[in-house]
Design goal:
Helix content is about 20%, strand content about 25%. It has two helices and five strands, in the order βββββαα. A hairpin with a 2-residue loop joins strand 3 and strand 4. It is globular. Bound molecules: zinc ion. The site of zinc ion has 6 residues, from loops.
């Protein structure tokens, strides 16, 4: 499995008008599964995703990968066709309009 790596600087704006999510990875430690720590780009809001052995624990909820796929895939692919169609038109980075906290 490819480990996601990206800049974890605060307040990096995304072309979509939000702050870029910060992602931290930790390898398996003993019996503990590897995990991603997902943090908001503008504040200290966070949750963890543990993975391995066909299961995913997201924000404290344990489920099979298949179950999570069913729940999340339609959300994650929403707008994908539209974005592909608009790829030629450059989106201008903007100061995020959406913020939490
Ligand atoms: Zn925030």
């Amino acid at each position: 499995m490819k480990i996601i790596k990206r800049s974890n600087a605060m307040a990096q704006s995304r072309p979509e008008g939000t702050w870029q999510i910060r992602v931290f990875h930790r390898k398996a430690v003993g019996k503990r599964s590897p995990r991603y720590l997902i943090k908001c780009g503008c504040c200290d809001q966070r949750f963890e995703i543990y993975y391995g052995d066909g299961t995913l624990e997201i924000a404290g909820v344990m489920g099979s990968v298949e179950d999570w796929r069913e729940i999340l895939l339609s959300l994650l692919t929403e707008g994908l066709k539209k974005r592909r169609r608009n790829r030629s038109t450059r989106m201008q980075p903007d100061t995020p309009k959406a913020a939490c906290g």
